Amino acid sequence: MTKVFMTRPLPDSVQAAAAALFDLTVRPMTTPLTVEEMRAALSDYDGVVPTLGDMFTAEIFAAEPAWRCQILANFGVGYNHIDVDAAAASGLTVTNTPGAVTDATADTAMTLMLMSARRAGEGERMVRAGHWDGWHPTQLLGMHLGGKTVGIVGMGRIGQAIARRCHFGFGMNVAYHSRSAKTLDFPAEQKDSLLALAAAVDVLVIAVPGGDETHHLINSDVLAAMQGHAHLINIARGNVVEEAALISALASGQIGGAGLDVYEFEPAVPDALKAMENVVLLPHIGTAALEVREDMGMMTVNNLKAFFAGEAPPNKV
Ligand code: NAP
Question: Fewer CB under 10 Å: which end of the chain, C or N?
Fold first, then answer.
């Protein structure tokens, strides 16, 4: 029977679906695989279900001329932790879970936008600390999102879902920067440069994939181009933003605030960020809802099922 290894526990329904098809082993830990565990996974199983933090680098694949494992069915749309070219060179197929994550991640971006612009984290900390002395007309005044301009960096599935929410839900203007022009069913202005986008918007939202190409895409130049009241929101990958430059920009008041779901050296979150009132910090909860994780898991199982039936997996990357 085909042996499949899940590197983390997934929802019960997903594990049951996989166990009905394969000889399934579920690693009980919630931490990323070590190098030794990655090698053992590639040696001992026909298929592996890795996820965020399982760093399948070129060196891992190159350690053996051939592996038993034929497919890495990644749990998640982002696969920048897997060197896909090196996997292919070693004969492995890689799949992901696009679409299942889109709406939940866009919702998380809206949560961060609202929390950052309307100072919700700061207010909650005030209440919990017992420092709230009652309503008054000039308390905790934030930025109203209606009528403002959002700039989307990476107008893909999630970027478009965020833009739709901003346009239809909040009456915001939408601008974006992407590698290619998009056909959209709502008004949106494409800016030819990231700096032009950064300078034009009240909220800049990052929705590009992680990886070498986008590493530190949001650097001190981009932050310097932003308006003093503008907010930066990152639901993509932590190292798309140069975290040290962001800390400087927040500390000096160069930008108005930030909302982060992801961090450059995740799960480490700099103390400087934790100490700031004008930043909202979430623990990478972009897709953290049971039905979303079930949908992602079922896509993973369907990719494995198709692959081992000799068919093209639906979500090969
Ligand atoms: P997608 O549909 O592939 O969209 C990515 C977009 O980024 C595309 O429009 C692409 O442009 C654009 N892009 C790529 N490289 C770029 C660059 N160098 N400069 C400007 N634009 C660039 O992917 P998605 O499904 O929306 O997911 C996006 C990312 O979100 C994932 O890769 C993942 O890392 C992250 N994510 C995070 C969470 C979370 O829990 N926080 C959850 C899900 C996903 P083209 O259209 O021209 O190719």
Answer: N
